[in-house]
Amino acid sequence: NAIIGFAEVMSGELLGPLGTPRYREYAADIVRSGRFLHDLISDVLDMAKVEAGRRELRLEPVDIVEETRESVRMLRPRAETGRVALATELGDAPVVISADRRAYCQIVLNLVTNAVKFTRPGGRVWVALRDGAAGPVLEVGDNGIGIAEDEMEHVGVPFFRVGNPQQATTEGTGLGLALTKSLVELHGWKLAIASRAGSGTKVTIELGPRLAAPGPLATAGSAATLRR
């Protein structure tokens, strides 16, 4: 944290100019690397807690519309940098379920981060909340590089990364989706992944029942579709 903080001060030249522009580039590299390592450590610790049975949920009423919107907002700069369109279909009325707020946000952040990461410039990622048979359904989809059929059975296994050539040049450890899957299972929710190499990926999570129903979600008929 100290390294990231001081590097941010230098890259932003908060105390004055650094002189040579190359120094600012080096400081920005330190920030990026520091954040990646910080996220990696956090994921490893969270995964260890889950596997040891020590990750406990703190259930409370959570407005998933607001939490999803805020999580997506945090990732918009990354999508803009990668020239990826990031769309949402969340509705305006609150949708409240019983969930661990931090875990839910972590699920959304992991799924959207993966979608943006593996979508080529000019591509599209969407995040939607829809009405399901037993309650709200979270959907995160993209028209990115997708996953080959023979690799689908390994998706969600810790540290597994698909063999697509674009994957080799993309930062990541293969923990994000594994952790997401574990958090979904801890809640008693259901996760499904549909993907095809070169045509994108769609992840859906059947969430718990509403605690309140102030308004309808988007209907299934308005869902963005994935070519198969």
What is the structure about, briefly put?
The protein is of the alpha+beta class and 228 residues long. Helix content is 40%, strand content 21%.
Mean of the pLDDT scores? 82
**Class derived from helix and strand content:** alpha+beta
Number of strands: 8
- Range of strand content: 15-25%
Poorly predicted regions are: 218-228
State the distance separating the first and last CA atoms. Answer: 44 Å
Percent helix range = 40-55%
Tally of DSSP helical segments: 6
Question: So what's the overall shape?
Answer: globular
N-to-C order of helices and strands: HHEHEEHEEHHEEE
Please outline the major beta sheet: 5 strands, mixed
Radius of gyration from the CA trace? 19 Å
Give the spatial strand order of the biggest sheet: 2-4-5-7-6
Describe this structure as you would to a colleague.
The protein is of the alpha+beta class. The chain is 40% helix and 21% strand. The chain has helices spanning 2-11, 21-51, 64-81, 101-117, 165-168, 176-187, and strands at 59-63, 85-89, 96-100, 124-131, 136-142, 190-196, 200-206, 210-212. The strands form two sheets. Strands 2-4-5-7-6 form a five-stranded mixed beta sheet, with helices on one face. The protein has a three-stranded antiparallel beta sheet with strand order 1-3-8. A hairpin with a 4-residue loop joins strand 4 and strand 5. Helix 1 (2-11) runs antiparallel to helix 2 (21-51), helix 3 packs parallel to helix 4 and helix 4 (101-117) packs antiparallel against helix 6 (176-187). The longest helix has 31 residues, at 21-51. Mean pLDDT is 82; it is low at 218-228.
